[in-house]
Structure formats: C-alpha cells, structure tokens
Amino acid sequence: MRIHVHQQSLAAALQQVQRAVSAHSTMPILGGIKLTADTDSLRLIATNQEIAVETYLAADSDTLSIEMPGSIVLPARYFVELVRKLPDPWVHLTVQQPYSVQITSAQAAFLLHGFDPEEFPRLPQIASDQPFLIHSDNLKDAIRQTVVAIAAEETRPVLTGLCMKFDADSITFIGTDSHRLASRKLFLQGGPEGASEIAVVPGKSIHELARLLPEDDTPVTMTIADNTLLVSSDTTRFFTRLLEGQYPDTSKIIPTTFKTRIHIRRDPFASALERALLIAREMQNQVVRLQLQSDRIELSAHSHDVGRVSEQVPLDQFSGDALTLAFNGKYMLDAVRSFDGEQLTVDFTGTMSPMILRPTDGQEYLHLVLPVRTV
Amino acid sequence: MRIHVHQQSLAAALQQVQRAVSAHSTMPILGGIKLTADTDSLRLIATNQEIAVETYLAADSDTLSIEMPGSIVLPARYFVELVRKLPDPWVHLTVQQPYSVQITSAQAAFLLHGFDPEEFPRLPQIASDQPFLIHSDNLKDAIRQTVVAIAAEETRPVLTGLCMKFDADSITFIGTDSHRLASRKLFLQGGPEGASEIAVVPGKSIHELARLLPEDDTPVTMTIADNTLLVSSDTTRFFTRLLEGQYPDTSKIIPTTFKTRIHIRRDPFASALERALLIAREMQNQVVRLQLQSDRIELSAHSHDVGRVSEQVPLDQFSGDALTLAFNGKYMLDAVRSFDGEQLTVDFTGTMSPMILRPTDGQEYLHLVLPVRTV
Q: Any coiled-coil ranges, and where (chains A, B) (predicted)?
C-alpha cells in the first residue's frame, strides 16, 4: 500500500472512527484502526466488538491519491495524534512488510509498527435492500430527547438501552428507567411496507451514534439484522450490537385523561428547577415539592443540613384542580431541558400518578415523570 | 448583616477566593467562605491553611449597599453555585442567627446554613511598610516561565517550590528539579534599600497565585514575614506559607563558555519536538537524540514497540563544532514553549554538559537542560 492523502481529510476520517477503538482490550489489535486502500478509495475501520465504525475517503486529486492498494492496522493511540501533528498538508503512507508503515510529511519521517490486517475482526455482512430512510438531524434530535430517560443501572439490563420501534412509516423512540419515560415518534422518509421491528440499542452505543451523526439533513438509512443495527450514510457506516430481552410494553402507562393542565414557559421553569436542585440534590430522590395554584406554581426543596429554597414561577395557562405533589427534581429538569419550544404543557393526574410533559405545539413527543412519596 | 449586592460582582469576588477553599478538610468550616460586611465594604476570605485569599468589594450604588454590618461563614460548595444561578441582577443577603443566611433574588428565596464567623481562622498580620513593587503581568510571566522546571516529586521537598530571591531592585525566580533549571530576573518598580531575602513558594500555591494575577499592569506589592509571602493588589490579598529548608545555590552550575551556539526559530523547533515525543514519550527519560550540523539539526527518537521518527529542522545561525547528544524531550519542549520570542539561542558545552536556552534578544531569562546518557 502506498497512498498520498490530505492531512485534514485523514484526520477527520480518523476522528470519525476512533471512538470505536477499544482502548483497553486484551486483544491489542482492537486498539488499532484498519486502513484499506482500494484502487479508488481509502477505507478506515475501528471496532470494540460492541460497535464498529467504517468511513470512506474517495480518491480525488484534492484529498487522496492511491499509488498502490493494500491494507494495514495501525495503533490508534499513536497514529491519530501523529496525523494531527504532521507539519505539511500532505501525508505519504507506505506499508512495509511485515506490518509497519512509513509516514512522511515535509521533513518529518515516522516508522510506525502495526498489525496484520487479516487478523482484524470482519464487519457483519448486512444486506440493506429495504432500509428505513431518515434525515440525520431528525435522528439525532430524537435520540437526544429520549436517551436521557434510559436506566443507568443494570437492574433490568434491557432498560439501559434505547428502544426503537420501526413501522412502515415511522420510528418510535422510547427510553425509560421505570421512574420516568420519554417517547418520540419520527416519521420516515421511507421504509419497507408492512414493517414491524423492535431494536434496543445499548446506551453507550446510542451516545456514540448521536455523536457521529451530522447536524444536517444528510440522508441516513437504518437496517436491522442478526441482532445488529446498521446506520449508513454515503461515507460512514455505524454498526452496533443490540440488547437482548423483552422491552416492556409502555403504551398502557401513559394516561389519557388529566385532572389539571398547565402551560408554562420552558426557560423560567428550567432555571427555577436548577435552583431548587442546588438544595434537593443533597437528598435521596432529589425531592422537589410542587404546589399548583391558579396563576403560578411554587417549587420548594429542603435539606436538614444545607437549608431550603422556594420559588414561584408564573403560568401561561391553568385549568383543573389545585394540587400539591413532589418529584425527583433531576428527572423533571432532564425532561424540561429536552424540549426545544418556548412553552410546555404539563398534565397532572393526581399526587401519586404520572405527570405528562409535551410541547404545547404538539409534536409527537412526550416525557412522563412519576411523583415520589414524601413524608 | 443585611446587604444588597450586584450578582455579577459577588460572583466575580467568589471566583477569586473559592480556589483557596479547602474541599476535603476535616474541619468543615474551612469549606466555607467568610463574608464580613463593614459600613463601607464587603470582605470575602477563604483559606485551606496553606494559602488564603481575601478580596474586597467597596460599597457603591451600582454594586453594593450595606444596610447592616455583620459577618458569616457560608459553605462554598452551595453558595458559589447558588449565586451564579440567581435570576436577578440584585442579590439580597440577610444573616439570621445563629449562623444562617436568607438569600433572595427576584422570586427565588434560599435559606442557607453557615458557620460561626468567630471560628474561622485569622489571617496572618503582616506589616507591609516596605514592600517590593511590581506589575501583575510581569509577575505572572516570570512565574509561568520558571514554574515549569520545579520538581514534581518530593525527594527534595525544597525543589517542589519556586525560589524567589528578592534584592533591592530585582527579583530572581528559579525553578529546578535537578535535571533542568529555569531562571528569570525581573526588575522591580520599587523595593526596600539593601534588601536581600529568599522565599521558596510551594508549587501548588504558586499556580494559584498565577491564576489570580490579572493579565495587566495592575500594581502588586510583595511582602515576606513569618514564613509567609503576601501578594497584595488594591482589591485582593493572597497569602501563602513558604517552604522551609535551604534552597541550593544554582549560580555555579550555569556554564559561562560554550562549544557550539545555534539560533533556531521557536515554533518549528517546538513542533518537531512534539512529533519526536509521540515516540519518545514511551521510553524512560523520553529520550530524543539531537544531531547538530552546520545548517540544521536532526531530531530522532526510537521505541522498540512503537517505531521511530526523525526530522530535520533548519537553523538560522550556527557556530562551533558539530555535536550529537540526547535529552529528555519533554524537558526540552517545556523550555522551548516557555519562551515568547520568535527565535532562541541554544549553547552547547558538550555531550554530557548542560545546554542553555535563551531568547536571542537577550532578556534576563534562561533555561538549562542536562543531556541524558544513552547506550
């Protein structure tokens, strides 16, 4: 293999794949990035056996020229930083047998030891003839809005993942840790007719996917096969293993009636919750108490050791009964922050029944937070 | 105590003192900040018994109004973040006996528990009738340029500090870990006649002092008394305990003749060192080899496991003998980066004798790096 590649393009491609590198594996080769030069492209792959990322650079005179095809695995720990620190816009890579590469750029010359590319794990072969089609920024948004509610603890492993329910025309994203739930429905650009599939993506993987997705309308396809989710764009493929186990049916726990409904502006509500949490975060369950009145709410928190706080927040609209209840302030703040609009609708069904937060302008999106019992 | 204070002014003052707060002391009160309101000012003090920082806010209609003098100690962990998160530009503080404070700002009302201000440690009483006078930015520069060479390890405790030699017209800053040395002389705006004092400031303290000093020509005074250094500006006083023990006489180890002298541009030299360190950092002593020729130097490093690197850097000027030696690349890079100018002069005295780096334009500033022996 002998190639000439633009430093910034190579550095950008390495940045894409490097988060899939296994930093502390007992298999040193998983700490590497596999480079494969074909006659017209350079492919980079990294995998930690849980996720894999593959990205392509097409040969063209501005960014990449392939003099001789070939392949090698290079240790990410050195190669990524080295490429970033090279002095010249052009980098020349020449593989030397067995398994090392000569890297030159202006006056700097490196020889870096690598690994046999034949030893590198293969990516799953996934046929994606009927994928689900979506825009990158929409997918990224839906993940961000729901991943916050997934479980951090392993008590019920399936809840540590984000559930995606694929239908022919939509994907519904659900995250829940059994104290709160976030649900977002996203309509597809296209999907296979009559489709009905469920994928539960591990929390770590979904964070990496969100990081990788560009913040624009790049078309992205999603395919599920062999307990693996594949998310592809023109230049990048992201693979993740899925969680096994039955995801709970959450459709029945979302109340359809309410006793009290308020409209409240997002930012003042979030700021007041942040202040209440300064005190509440010291307490088990981070308990914040909420008093609902006709034109305002009062948030309060109390800690024997630290002190107490109370604050009133005006309401834009109120209907139904006055009510007092308590909730985990952190869960409520996570929910409130996840909304984009200026105003929220919050429905209350009773002191020990779920609260439902929705954007007032009615996207297919909601957060459910359970109250907590206080003495 | 009852005061009304502008949120940003209070937050800025808290930021000044909070780094002196003791986060993990067995004495909870040291995790606090003492507020003292006199008739015309608010004083904030924090100390971890090693350093202390005191800052003043003068009463004036735009930032501070004192309704009733008084004093309290408030836990930094809550108070600092709370002030930062308050909704209104104005904060109202009312001390309630015993030892708590009511904090209100717009609709938000806190009660925060504190400590008896009488229990807070007193600051040392240091008379500063004949202080050393200096500009803040100069002091900050001199610290930055020399602190890099102090010892990280406690083998010889006095070397973990930065040595300041005060004379009537100058301060000389010296840092050394016995493998390298940095020395910088700073001429004073004023100092006591016939003065000759030495202060060795602990490494942690000197970093905090540098952080606190503004990047401008604010006048600053320095006073040494009772094994304490006091650095004062109009609004802030910084106290630090000094290290005990005899600081070594370093004047004799700086060579006065040389065999080879080069002039080299700082940035290309620093970048080439960074690249060599990518390989060298894996090796004990981070060994980088240097070959001196008439118009260029060659830097190289080698690691059996990782690979090797070599790079040539052009010289602006060369006089004396060709030479090959090796050094700790990290020490050399620290030294090179500490210079501000475009060009450095490096003097060589032999393969096992010190290298001396100076700015070519000849400030009172040098770095000494000892070569390392290689096989």
A: 273-300
Interchain contact, B271 vs A81, CB within 8 Å: no
Q: State the pLDDT at residue B41.
A: 97
> Considering only CA atoms, which of A145, A132, A141 is closest in space to residue A220?
A132
Which residues of chain A have a CB within 8 Å of the CB of B302?
A: none
Q: Please enumerate in sequence order all residues whose Cβ is within 8 A of that of B306, keeping only pairs 6 or more positions apart, or say none.
A: A75, A78, A112, A113, B279, B282
Per-window interface: B 291-350 vs A, CB < 8 A: 305-313
A191 pLDDT tier (thresholds 50, 70, 90) = confident
CA-based diameter of chain A, in Å?
78
Cβ contact A272–B307 (<8 Å): no
pLDDT score, position A375: 64
- What are the pLDDT digits (tens) for B305-336? 999 999 999 999 999 999 999 999 999 999 99
Tell me, what's the ipTM?
Answer: 0.89
B132-250 adopts what CATH topology? DNA Polymerase III; Chain A, domain 2 (3.10.150)
Please report residues of B whose CB lies closer than 8 A to that of A78.
Answer: 278-279, 306-307
Three-class secondary structure assignment of A297-310: EEEEEEECCCEEEE
Distance CA B185, CA B175 (A): 12
Give A154-183 pLDDT, tens digit per residue: 889 999 999 999 999 999 999 999 999 999
How far does the CA of residue B109 sit from the closest CA of chain A (Å)?
A: 5
Residue A129 has pLDDT above 80, yes or no: no
| pLDDT of amino acid B194 | 84
* Cβ atoms within 10 Å of B259's Cβ, excluding its own: 16
B107/A contact by beta carbon, under 8 A: yes
Which residues in chain B are contacts of A87 at CB distance < 8 A? 271-272, 275
Given CATH 3.40.50.2300, say whether it is the number of domain B254-369.
no
The contacts found for A224-233 with CB under 8 angstroms, 24 or more apart, are A224/A166, A224/A197, A224/A199, A225/A124, A225/A126, A225/A127, A226/A124, A226/A126, A228/A124, A228/A126, A229/A164, A229/A199, A229/A201, A230/A124, A230/A126, A230/A128, A231/A139, A232/A128, A232/A131, A233/A136
Superfamily of domain A2-119: DNA Polymerase III, subunit A, domain 2 (3.10.150.10)
Which has more confidence, A117 or B195?
A117
Interface test with B, best of A107, A111, A264, A296 (most B CBs within 10 A): A107
> Is the distance from CB of A123 to CB of A52 less than 8 angstroms?
yes
- Ranges of chain B whose pLDDT falls below 70: 375
Q: Is A275 on the interface with B (CB under 8 A)?
A: yes
- Nearest-5° Cα angle at A28, A27 to A30: 75
Cis before residue B75, ω within 30 degrees of 0?
A: no
Chain A nearest CA to B205, separation (Å): 30
Across chain A, what does the average pLDDT equal? 95
Distance of alpha carbon B314 from alpha carbon A371, whole angstroms? 70
Do the domains spanning A132-251 and A254-369 agree at the CATH topology level? no
Put simply, whether B32 touches A (Cβ < 8 Å) is no
Which residue ranges make up each domain of chain B? 2-119, 132-250, 254-369
Per-residue pLDDT reduced to its tens digit, A84-102: 999 989 999 999 988 999 9
SS3 category, B119: helix
Three-class SS of residue A126?
A: coil
Q: How many CB atoms lie within 10 A of CB B193?
A: 7
Which of the four pLDDT bands, split at 50, 70 and 90, describes residue A216? very high
Nearest CB among B87, B274, B308 relative to A111 is that of B308
